[in-house]
């Protein structure tokens, strides 16, 4: 399996130290001497670190992410590309479409979870009592919109 790196870039302090970088590999919780050796490394980078624990180029990058002016030539090039992307209508449209789609899928998943939890609660109440589905929904205080979604599932 190829090595995999998952990198989180945080604009806040992470964990309990003042580090810029925290790296993790998978270890057995019962015996820390056993490593999973799946090639996965998780790295948390914090723009708020104060320790002298990273290279200058990485520090300049984190400073840039944190809103500071580009401090070297590489960051100036990256800043220029960011400005180009911000001005490109096609890329902006594509980004907005992707962001909208992600928000929609999140909302759908959240709504599915609410519906599934309500359905389970109504079924449990019906199983423990002699209530009808509508009586159980009313007792649980679900609104009309949720009630309308639940009723076909309870028949």
Walkthrough of the structure:
This protein is 52% helix and 12% strand. It folds into 2 domains: 4-88, no CATH class; 90-154, no CATH class. The model has no long low-confidence stretch (mean pLDDT 86). The radius of gyration is 25 Å and the shape is elongated. α3 packs across α4. With 155 residues, the protein is α+β, with helices and mostly antiparallel strands. The protein has 5 helices and 3 strands, in the order βββααααα. Strands 1-3-2 form a 3-stranded mixed beta sheet, with no helix packed on it.
- Overall morphology: elongated
Radius of gyration: 25 Å
Extended strand count = 3
**Amount of helix:** 40-55%
**How would you state the average pLDDT, rounded?**
86
Short description:
This protein has helices at residues 56-65, 73-87, 89-128, 133-140, 144-150, and strands spanning 4-10, 21-25, 40-46. The chain is of the alpha+beta class and 155 residues long. It has a three-stranded mixed β-sheet with strand order 1-3-2, with no helix packed on it.
């Amino acid at each position: 399996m190829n090595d995999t790196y998952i990198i989180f870039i945080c604009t806040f302090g992470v964990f309990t130290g003042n580090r810029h970088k925290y790296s993790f590999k998978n270890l057995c919780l019962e015996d820390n001497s056993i490593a999973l050796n799946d090639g996965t490394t998780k790295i948390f980078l914090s723009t708020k670190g104060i320790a002298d624990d990273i290279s200058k180029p990485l520090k300049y990058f984190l400073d840039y992410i944190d809103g500071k002016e580009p401090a070297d030539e590489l960051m100036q090039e990256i800043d220029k590309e960011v400005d180009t992307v911000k001005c490109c209508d096609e890329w902006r449209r594509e980004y907005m479409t992707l962001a909208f789609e992600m928000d929609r899928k999140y909302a759908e998943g959240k709504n599915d979870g609410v519906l599934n939890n309500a359905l389970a609660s109504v079924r449990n109440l019906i199983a423990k009592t002699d209530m009808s589905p509508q009586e159980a929904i009313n007792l649980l205080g679900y609104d009309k919109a949720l009630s309308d979604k639940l009723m076909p599932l309870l028949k």
